[in-house]
Specification:
CATH superfamily of the largest domain: Death Domain, Fas
CATH topology of the largest domain: Death Domain, Fas
Strand content: 5-15%
Structural class: alpha+beta
CATH class of the largest domain: Mainly Alpha
Order of helices and strands: EEEEEHHHHHHH
GO cellular component, one term: cytosol
Main location: cytoplasm
Number of strands: 5
Protein name: CARD domain-containing protein
Subcellular location: Cytoplasm, Cytosol
Number of helices: 7
InterPro entries: CARD, CARD8/ASC/NALP1_CARD, DEATH-like_dom_sf, FIIND_dom, NLRP_Inflammasome
Length: 170
């Protein structure tokens, strides 16, 4: 990274907030190197593990924040993991204002077919667009829902911040 700013890796979703030039090297790691299965444990691996290194010639404290892809699991052993887009379904249907840019992202990622995209776009109001989108997401797995979350975050960041109760650096 050649200057200060917020940088996002399009492949992994990792974001780095930096205050100046820096060289960051990161790679996926195996959980098995750090985590032993404990019989009877209620913990489950649900997201990636990354090894992140800052080049030694970089200034100290140049990285002010690291934002990892959105993985969260607060559940009991008997219930399935709940993704942000599932947990906040009602609020997203009611409050998401910029639906078309989200649809554009999903079409570009081939998560929606052209027919599905056009079917959603012609609906009015935005709440009906979101209801139809949710109809198509019923068969999506966690990675596809993560891509939907990232598209919503890019196009409707204030709403996501409000729903998550977090402050995300810009």
């Amino acid at each position: 990274m050649k200057s200060a700013g917020l940088f996002c890796c399009q492949k992994t979703g990792i974001k780095f907030q930096v205050t100046g030039p820096v060289v960051i090297v990161y790679s996926p790691e195996s959980w098995s190197d750090y985590f032993e299965e404990i019989p009877g444990s209620k913990h489950e691996i649900i997201g990636p593990l990354f090894k992140i290194k800052i080049h030694e010639q970089s200034m100290a404290n140049v990285v002010s924040a690291v934002y990892l892809p959105h993985y969260l699991c607060l559940r009991s052993a008997s219930s399935p993991p709940e993704h942000f887009v599932d947990k906040h379904r009602k609020a997203l249907i009611e409050r998401l204002s910029h639906v078309d840019p989200v649809l554009d992202d999903l079409l570009a990622q081939s998560l929606l077919t052209q027919e599905q995209y056009e079917n959603i776009r012609r609906r009015k109001p935005t709440q009906e667009k979101m209801r139809q989108l949710y109809q198509y997401t019923t068969s999506w797995g966690y990675p596809d829902k993560e891509n939907l979350y990232q598209a919503i975050l890019r196009c409707n960041k204030p709403l996501v911040i409000d729903l998550e109760g977090l402050q995300i650096a810009i």
